[in-house]
Amino acid sequence: MAIARFENLTINNVTSSVSVYGEYTTSISAWFETRGVIQDVTNAMRTSERYREYFDLVNITVNYTPYMKTVVDAQSLYSVTFRGIDWRITDIRESNDKMKVSMICYRNDPDVAI
User: CA 45, 47, 48, 54: dihedral to nearest 10 degrees?
Assistant: First the structure.
């Protein structure tokens, strides 16, 4: 059984746009701060023929609030800042009694040549 702990989190708005030159840009702005239960922090590396790819996963559980309902309804428009790093939401589940929201978040670093 993993140890769960409370940590400070910031929920961010994520907006994507295209510049006048056709470049895709993503901007992240803080929306609100909360505390969540952090579990199962996973740091992993996958090696292909030429590259190493580092990726991390974390399981976050927060209380169900009207703000979190907005995140549940459109998870691709939000991210979580944990340990000063931006984590994107890959899976989100609300409990049947609407008391908790569980999120699996990922951070994918760039590929690094071997």
Answer: 30
Residue 39 identity: Q
* pLDDT reading at 54 higher than 60: yes
- In the block, tokens 């699996």 appear at 104
Backbone angles phi, psi at 76, to 5 degrees: -70, -15
Considering the entire predicted model, what is its pTM? Answer: 0.80
Cβ atoms of 79 and 106 closer than 8 Å = no
CA 43, distance to chain mean position in Å, is 14
Tell me the per-residue pLDDT of 1-19, one tens digit each, with 9 for 90 and over: 567 789 999 999 999 888 8
Tokens of 47: 């090696």
- In Å, the largest CA–CA distance within the chain is 51
